[in-house]
Amino acid sequence: MARQKVLVPYNFTDYDGKALDFVIQRFADDESIEVTLFNAYVPVPEIELRNSPIMEKISRNLGFLQQKIHAQEAEIKQAREKLLQNGFSKDRVHYIFRAIKKDVAQDIIDLTIDKGFDVVVLNRNPGKITRFFTRSVSNIVINNLKEIHVNVVT
Questions:
Q1: Which of 2, 18, 85, 119 has CB atoms 3.0–4.6 Å from 149's, for a disulfide?
Q2: What average pLDDT score do residues 123-148 get?
Q3: Is the pLDDT assigned to residue 33 strictly greater than 90?
Q4: How many distinct helices (H) and strands (E) make up the chain?
Q5: SS3 per-residue string spanning 107-149
Q6: Sign (positive/negative) of CA torsion 132, 103, 111, 146?
């Protein structure tokens, strides 16, 4: 029997925790469901040092950013562990942690289509001021995935 594939974009916020709790409540007991956590991070640029003290300082700062990326990968693994501890088997939970290709919304859309996900579980931060200036990721995803079930957890 083919499993239904659920994509959960995960960005390490409390709202992502709510989305994870929703997935646990809704899908943990259903053996026909496979969950993939997804995070697209901004990659750290590579620079040439050129024996300059300023460039060395920038290099140290970039090293800090690289450590932050490694910490985020550890966090997404912890989120996977939470799913495993709450009823999911190892063969039903995966994660994708990769550098952003276009923008977060478009990466979610492309991944959903390319990997054949049936359901996308998003969260929505209800109070962000930036929503006045930009379109939210959830709105972009909903408007572009017409044949896919999209659940928005608030």
A1: 119
A2: 74
A3: yes
A4: 4, 5
A5: HHHHHHHHHCCCEEEEECCCCCHHHHCCCCHHHHHHHHCCCCE
A6: positive
- For residue 73, count CB atoms less than 10 angstroms from its CB and return exposed for 0-12, middle for 13-18, buried for 19 or more: middle
| Cα–Cα distance list, 104 to 26, 59, 131 (Å) | 25, 26, 15
How far is 87 from 74, CA to CA, in rounded Å?
Answer: 21
Residues 37, 10 contacting (CB under 8 angstroms): yes
- Tell whether pTM > 0.90: no
Are 42 and 60 in contact by the 8 Å Cβ rule? The answer is no
pLDDT in tens, 106-130: 999 999 999 999 999 998 766 555 5
The first and second tokens of residue 38, run together, are 């997804």
